[in-house]
Amino acid sequence: MRAQNTTTRPPAGGVVPEAAGGFTRKGEYRDRWSKGVTVPDRTPPLPPASPPSPPTPPPRRADVTTVEIVGGAEPLTVTLQPSDARWAELYLDHERRIRAALAEHSPLEAEAVGIEHIGSTSVVGLAAKPIVDIVVTVPDITAEEDYLDALLAAGYELRVREPGHRLVRTPTRDVHVHILERGDPAVGEYLLFRDHLRSDAADRALYENTKRALLSRPWSDMNAYSDAKTEVVAAIKERARLRSRSTGR
């Protein structure tokens, strides 16, 4: 009669045998399938799933479709001034002023509002018009009651209302606050341009020379002056994008 093979084989159920085969410390081979054991599951537990991001709420209302310039066009009479450390201080003063106004008069949470110093006054070493530009991002540009009333109460004056953008400024016109919706590509463009000029001396000089040439002639309005810089600004931004891709930043 043929001897029966009594070696325990892996069962089909829940008991998992010890790993097959191996050597003891004395070098003797032993069949680890010969004794069924339950192997504890040492797989690390999966981290808890992150809660899904809340969906972006739809705009509270339709945005404006026209450009409203409160007070009409204004002749541009300013000239460039050398880079001034006081511009950064003025920005910080107004950042605090804006946050305090929103905290007191707005339902928006502080973390829902972004504030950045942009424009030429944000670049050390770059001559600029003595006007500090600030960008403020809010969750919903159409919900003016969430931010505009607070800024007006803080002493700013509405200058521009247009699709996707509001502009308030100080009565002395030395600080311009641009309000945009969070996620607006324009915000990234502002920061890309600023950060590139901060680190690239050649493009910083090119931009300054361009502004000096343009300001040597009269302009009927600030917007017309800004439009005249478009070609040079676009070229600098393209170099900034190439540099960002090459450095991975």
CATH superfamily of the domain at 79-247: Beta Polymerase, domain 2
> What's the Cα radius of gyration?
32 Å
Q: Say how many strands there are.
A: 6
What is the helix content? 25-40%
Largest sheet entry: 6 strands, mixed
Could you tell me how far the N terminus lies from the C terminus, measured between alpha carbons in angstroms? Answer: 77 Å
Number of distinct helices: 6
Major beta sheet, strand line-up = 1-4-5-6-3-2
What structural category do the secondary elements indicate? alpha+beta
Q: How does this structure look, described?
A:
With 249 residues, the chain is α+β, with helices and mostly antiparallel strands. It has a domain at 79-247: Beta Polymerase, domain 2 (2-Layer Sandwich). Helices cover 33% and strands 13% of the residues. It is built from six helices and six strands, in the order E-H-E-E-H-E-E-E-H-H-H-H. A six-stranded mixed beta sheet has the order 1-4-5-6-3-2, sandwiched between helices. Helix 3 packs across helix 6. The termini are far apart. Residues 13-34 have low confidence and may be disordered.
